Amino acid sequence: MSQLSRNVVQRGDALELLRSLEEHCSPLVFFDPQYREVMDKLKFGNEGARQRGRFDLPAMSSEFIDAACREAARVLKPSGYLLQWVDTFRLCEGYHQRVADVLKIVDLIAWDSLRLGMGKRSRRRGDYLLVLQKPPVIAGKTWRDHGIPSRWPEKVDRTIHPHAKPIGLISRLIGAIAEPGELVVDPAAGSFVVMHAAHKLGREFIGCDIAHADSGELKSPQTMFDEILRGYMDAQSRILAADSGRNRAGRSR
Question: Is residue 100 domain-resident?
Fold first, then answer.
């Protein structure tokens, strides 16, 4: 593997990137693996038509994801955090317990994407973020923002990337865990939203995505950040307007 660089958008393999990093070099790793279990299990049969962008991305096996999590644990500083995105299926099946010897589950954040998705019973609307901590498990000294809610509503623009994640939440988490100048890692970076958030907050970043070179014409980092941020601000404005309307309706009763 060619040497990967910091603070740039680049193609690379998640596991190779993590193995190339020094032990205890980061307080924070984000991981958004391209898993296939739920689609293979439910077999809707229309992923190619309705989710072409996601369907075309290279999938990761459960064994690969486990290996990447273990490498992330090696890379993390003591009491550092792995923040791993999962869907309902992987959460309920307890896949994170397979690495519980090196990463302890300490919290869970539910992201509401404000966009109705698939489901044979309830319809999915967002994903979950597992908060996994490398021992020793310590809260107060390792997490500085105690105003982050466990349910986070934020809309994203999936024309930027099929796996676009909420920059508002990501920014709050980076600020809560990583100090200015510290290294934030994202080995499956997708739209590189973590990189953009880290740069805005004065943190170092290293990450890659295996599908980067296959994603067609790449928008400039500033254009991508502006579009992601605009989607976040639009969503927050709608939420505030809805809350205001409910409050007025309550007062009029």
Answer: yes
